[in-house]
Amino acid sequence: MRWNYLATGSVLLILASLTGAEYLGTTISTDGTFHLYGAGEDENGSFVSRVMAVGTSELSRIITGEDSGIGLSVHGAGPVLFSDYTTKDRVYPATPACVFLTADRINAPGRSHMYTSGILERGTYTMSRVTDPDLVGESLINGTGFIILESGSEGNSTSESAGFVSGNMTVHDQVML
After folding, report:
1. Is the separation of the CB atoms in 85 and 121 below 8 Å?
2. pLDDT at residue 4 in the model
């Protein structure tokens, strides 16, 4: 009887992997350590994100294929390391996300992009990104540590913004490119 369930589940997993994910949700609650990575690309753009937390922490992540979006929220009583990078261009494999991205590693002419990286001693990091039809993003950071924020667009109209924040902080960053 159990073999029937195992065989049915295996077939469904194989079929699901062939069709591509339209929705992926992850929830983690732990008093240990976790590291979570996600990346993807479609005709609207590319994204890559990583988050790691040590100690009591909670994470919720949603990736949707329908509107090319990603949402992530992590709260940690201990250290939280995070980085995410989103672009309107199709870049796959996407630029690796690390905690300290530099403009020379991600900037390219004509590219609309947005990234956030940082280390929090403790606190909350929440972000959302959508690349269809425009690159729209929001980052909310509340905690103690340091972060790097950058966004920019080159082409007919060029804009760029970059910043560094350290100490006790509450940051709300919104971008539409």
Report:
1. no
2. 55
